[in-house]
Write a structure and sequence with these properties.
By secondary structure, this protein is of the alpha/beta class. The protein folds into two domains: about 180 residues, Rossmann fold, CATH 3.40.50.620; about 100 residues, GMP Synthetase, Chain A, domain 3, CATH 3.30.300.10. Helices cover about 40% and strands about 20% of the residues. It contains nine helices and nine strands. Strands 3-2-1-4-5 form a five-stranded parallel β-sheet, with helices on both faces. Helix 6 links the parallel strand 4 and strand 5. Helix 1 crosses helix 2 and helix 8 packs antiparallel against helix 9. The chain is globular and about 65 Å long. The two termini are about 35 Å apart. The structure holds xanthosine-5'-monophosphate. Xanthosine-5'-monophosphate (XMP) binds next to helix 6. The site of xanthosine-5'-monophosphate (XMP) has 17 residues, from helix 6.
Length: about 300
Amino acid sequence: MFQVEKFLDEGQDYIRKNVVGKAIVACSGGLDSTIVAILANRAIGSKSTAVFIDTGFIRIGEKERTEAIFRKYDLNYRIIDASSAFISGLKGVTDPEKKRKIIGKVFIEEFEKVATEIGAESLMQGTIAPDWIESGGGVRDVIKSHHNVGGLPEKMNLKLVEPLRDLYKDEIREIAKYLGLESSKQPFPGPGLAVRILGDITPERIAVIKQVTEIVEREVETKLKNSLPWQYFAILTPVRTTGVHGDKRSFGETVAIRMFETSDAMSGTFSKPPWDFLDQLSTKITNAVAAVNRVVYDITNKPPATIEWE
Ligand code: XMP
């Protein structure tokens, strides 16, 4: 049985023992990294600074929500807008592994800049077990380089400290609940919406995925709140198809909806929401986002598919 209080005590000891000098905590606003930031604040107080980077691939309102959490827990923090560095770095890149490596590289460059400003020598991250297992840290093949593991360059000037390395998502949720964080919050990948845009990454397509993501989250969270899926999101596929708009032919974007059930993210099944819900969701999306003329629902389990499309 996992014991939250015991873990929190041990986690703080681990941080005190392993952090060298001051530390910055790479914060995405998700549960994993927020837990690390709170734990670091408890363990070493103002020697830690939570750093949130706006990559340009975050969800609408994400920066504001994250800042509110930093304030609620009275953390030392910095918010940095690095969207132009990320967007220009990903120009013309469609290979998912390349994307993750580039994102990891730009993240580290940005973190090293802040670390130099603050005079920090350690970098803390919310890496959990499935991240490094699937990134090839075990005996398995690299399934995908999760940005907070495989995306890191081999040489880095900061000492990496990862207090949640041995935990799984269900344990994270227990800790979050204990700390008063919204534990129903769904996971969101570190590389953000960049891994949910397949094909060209352009400002227009970034705007499309942001809008659709907001609609999907709002609709699921209001209409399915009593049976919330474990994860629910949209993917902008590289497929364009023919449609009709008024009496005109259109050749628009195809959005895929993924809703997923699992306990540990290692395996799981697609959700089976009511048809009516999917019907309304599809109409809402195509009415609100002119560039999209087709919506499909992903009916694949993991394995064989991963939860994200990239
Ligand atoms: P996959 O797609 O590997 O996803 O089945 C398992 C869980 O991990 C999330 N995910 C990521 N999280 N960096 C992260 O921090 C990443 O690069 C990444 N890729 C996937 C995914 O959203 C799911 O919850």
